[in-house]
Amino acid sequence: MGALSGGCGGQGGLWGWNGPWRDEGSSRPRRRSSKPSDSVESTAGGPARRFPLKQAATAGSLALAGDTIAQVSARLRRKREGSARPSPSGPDVDGAREDVIGILFSDHDWFRALRMTSYGFLFYGPGSFVWYQYLDKTLPKPTVKNLMLKVLLNQIVLGPTVIAIVFAWNNLWQGKLSELPIKYQKDALPTLLYGFRFWIPVSALNFWVVPLQARVAFMSMGSIFWNFCLSSTMSK
């Protein structure tokens, strides 16, 4: 997880972007080598800034993993509910193998998978990266009081924000923005309360044990389960 660090040592503005990279005695910027895996930079209208690409890619990949688990689980459940009684001649091994392959690869909703992946890449990864930087700067001392404040703020600020964004993003992709208030009224509060039971202990462990540069990766790993829950809620 240490490989997922994005230069978190207290530097960076919005989305964890870096400040100017200029010499003090020179007005000409240094030349920097670029690699395909480097963060995306923009020099238009000001100093270079860095998008936390690794954290975004991690969150997007794990959002895809959670959605895939949700879709496969739903297909397995439907398969068990609709399965006939076993044949008296014994199990059909070839047929069972074909069923497994079909469950894994057929009828997969790739549009839904893209919705969840883009949410993780564009919103959860960069947004949580900034949020953890802010909390670490605001409450830098590893005291019990600061730990409890971080966990509390994580639940009352980040949790509702994530649910609000993912619900809106899902309805926007489906062309159902007019139904968003009903979706919030029906599913937002139950989803948030269910998330408290999972995220409060995970957040405590995250702030108490995990170093800053690895927190997005750690929380994203926990997000595999949470994205499974969100994806299942979104498909209702």
Rg, Cα atoms, Å: 22 Å
Largest sheet: 2 strands, antiparallel
* Net shape: globular
First and last CA, distance: 34 Å
Task: Provide the helix percentage.
Answer: 55-70%
Low-confidence stretches: 1-29, 31-39, 41-48
As a percent range, the share of strand residues is under 5%
How many strands? 2
Q: Kindly state the mean pLDDT as a whole number?
A: 75
Please tally the helical runs, counting DSSP H or I stretches of 4 or more residues. 6
Q: Strand arrangement, largest sheet?
A: 1-2
**Succession of helices and strands:** EEHHHHHH
Summarize the structure.
The protein is an all-alpha fold and about 240 residues long. It is about 65% helix and about 0% strand.
Word description of this protein:
By secondary structure, the chain is mostly helical. It is about 65% helix and about 0% strand. The chain has six helices and two strands; from the N terminus they run ββαααααα. The protein has helices at about 55-80, 95-105, 110-140, 145-175, 180-210, 215-235, and strands spanning about 40, 50. A two-stranded antiparallel ribbon has the order 1-2. A hairpin with a 6-residue loop joins strand 1 and strand 2 (about 50). Helix 1 (about 55-80) crosses helix 3 (about 110-140). The protein starts with about 40 loop residues before the first strand and ends with a helix. The model is unreliable at about 1-30, about 30-40 and about 40-50 (pLDDT under 50).
